[in-house]
Structures are given as structure tokens and as C-alpha cells.
Design a protein that fits this description.
Blueprint lengths: L3 H15 L6 E4 L14 E7 L2 E6 L3 E6 L5 E6 L12 E6 L3 E6 L3 E6 L4 H4 L13 H8 L7 H6 L9 H10 L15 H16 L35 E3 L6 E3 L14
Antiparallel strand pairs: 1-6, 2-3, 3-4, 4-8, 5-7, 6-7, 9-10
Helix pairs in contact: 3-6
Family: Belongs to the FPG family.
Catalytic activity: 2'-deoxyribonucleotide-(2'-deoxyribose 5'-phosphate)-2'-deoxyribonucleotide-DNA = a 3'-end 2'-deoxyribonucleotide-(2,3-dehydro-2,3-deoxyribose 5'-phosphate)-DNA + a 5'-end 5'-phospho-2'-deoxyribonucleoside-DNA + H(+)
Keywords: DNA damage, DNA repair, DNA-binding, Glycosidase, Hydrolase, Lyase, Metal-binding, Multifunctional enzyme, Zinc, Zinc-finger
């Protein structure tokens, strides 16, 4: 599932291509929107909210999309060949005279009134990359259920919006605890440092596609544990382990991280 920094970059790319321009192509390929025609309307802005994308359109309308596991928006110049996947995976096309935004494999695509946006994003917690980021509120929400495993608390977008599975694994490593450690068992001050680190990392990575959490100046080292199954830990040399009992695979270093393992939390 794309992380908040990926969604932020997608929104910026779409905003630069579409905002302030008249739609000359509108093709929404989901049954409930198949007859909707947005041509002749101006795109006002494209705004990220956590992992949600809000494309606001003249006339008080918002096209709401969510990428979930493998959805994507690609932007092409006029006449450029589309390369995001086969045609049957296209769910939305928004085109102007200069650019075309194509949404592939979008599991969520809704058209709603802009004033009704809270119905789809109002449940989200503080947005790590939003202008209204609230550190104290994010800490309060994450710590509200002391028995909840840390990984679950971080992934819950109602606590803070923008953390995905990559950051879940990396943040737990940087805090030196496993993702299954109950939040209430974190040492004093760790929840605050962890959430401050989450904000810092997403801010640092929002402008680059090669996401990094490793601070050492080595181009071959980008992430501490995520995706590094059976490789040695950069800190202690212990073999990185993984667990795939759900769709969000967890990676951790048993040498550096203390706490329960998978299936033992709670």
C-alpha cells in the first residue's frame, strides 16, 4: 500500500498538471460513474489527505480516490503513450489540452460534493504531511489503547494519517521494539520520539522517489529492515526476519528489537 509520502507526490504531480485547466477529457470507468461527464469544468486543485486523493473540480465537486494496495495515478503529456498498465486496468481519465491523468487499478473512486468531503476523510487522524499536523493529538490517539500492538496503532489512519507498512516496520526498528509490543509497554518518551520521527521521515521523503530511513551516507542502504528478508542487520548483523500471516508483511531484527514476536502479542 502506498505510504503518505507517495500519495503526497502523486497529488503534487496531478495538481501541477491539471489545476487551473479545463477538462477536455473525462472518462470514469466504474459503473456508478460511467455516464458522468466532467468536460468543460476547471480542475481547482488536487489535495492529499493521508492516503486519500481529493481532486476538486469547478461546480462544487470532488473526485475522491484511494490507491489501497496497488492503485496509481500517472500523468502524461499530450500525445505521450500510456505506460501504467493494460487498458482494462484504467479506472479514470482526466485530460486537458496539455496533460492527461490516468488512474490505474483504483479500488476507490467516488464523485461527491466538495462540502461532503468529511464523509470520506473526516475520520482520519492528524495528517503527517498536512498543514494541520497536530503532534500532541497524534500522540494522544496512538497511546489511547495501551494494549494495542504498536504496528496496529501506527497503521490505524484514525490515529495519524500517512503511515503505511514500510514506515511501520522502519519506525519499530528505530524505536528498537517489535511491531507487536503493546503501546503501553513502550519506555517513557518513546511514543513521542517515534511520532516525531514519523513526521520527520515523511517530510524528508515526500520530494524523492527513493525512500530512505537509513541516515548513513551510503546509496546502497535505504531501509533498515523492510524488504530485507534473510539479510544481515546493518546495526548488529543478525538476520532480518519476516512474517507474512496477513497481507502486510512485517520485517524485524531479533537482535536489535525487543518485545513479542508475531502471533504472541496480547
Amino acid at each position: 500500500m502506498p505510504e503518505g509520502d507517495t500519495v503526497w507526490r502523486t497529488a503534487r504531480r496531478m495538481h501541477r498538471a491539471l489545476a487551473g485547466r479545463l477538462l477536455t477529457v473525462s472518462d470514469l470507468r466504474v459503473p456508478r460513474l460511467a455516464t458522468t461527464d466532467l468536460t468543460g469544468r476547471t480542475v481547482l486543485d488536487v489535495t492529499p489527505r493521508g492516503k486519500h486523493l481529493l481532486t476538486r473540480i469547478e461546480g462544487g465537486l470532488t473526485l475522491h480516490s484511494h490507491l489501497r494496495m496497488d492503485g496509481a495515478w500517472h500523468v502524461y503529456e499530450a500525445g505521450e503513450r500510456w505506460r501504467g498498465g493494460p487498458g482494462h486496468q484504467v479506472r479514470a481519465v482526466l485530460g486537458t489540452s496539455a496533460y492527461t491523468a490516468v488512474g490505474y487499478r483504483l479500488p476507490v473512486l467516488d464523485l461527491l460534493r466538495t462540502v461532503d468531503e468529511p464523509s470520506v476523510v473526516g475520520h482520519l487522524g492528524p495528517d503527517l504531511l498536512g498543514p494541520d499536523w497536530d503532534f500532541e493529538e497524534a500522540v494522544r490517539r496512538v497511546c489511547a489503547d495501551p494494549a494495542r500492538p504498536l504496528g496496529e496503532a501506527l497503521l490505524d489512519q484514525r490515529n495519524l494519517a500517512g503511515v503505511g507498512n514500510v514506515y511501520k516496520c522502519e519506525l519499530a526498528f528505530m524505536a528498537r521494539v517489535t511491531p507487536w509490543l503493546p503501546v503501553g509497554e513502550l519506555p517513557p518518551g518513546v511514543p513521542e520520539r517515534l511520532i516525531a520521527t514519523a513526521h520527520r521521515l515523511l517530510e524528508a521523503n515526500k520530494d524523492r522517489s527513493d525512500r530512505r530511513t537509513v541516515t548513513a551516507a551510503r546509496p546502497d542502504r535505504r531501509l533498515y529492515v523492510y524488504g530485507r528478508r534473510n539479510q544481515p542487520c546493518y546495526r548488529c548483523g543478525t538476520t532480518i526476519r519476516w512474517d507474512d500471516r496477513d497481507e502486510r508483511v512485517s520485517y524485524w531484527c531479533p537482535g536489535c528489537q525487543t518485545g513479542p514476536g508475531p502471533g504472541t502479542a496480547g
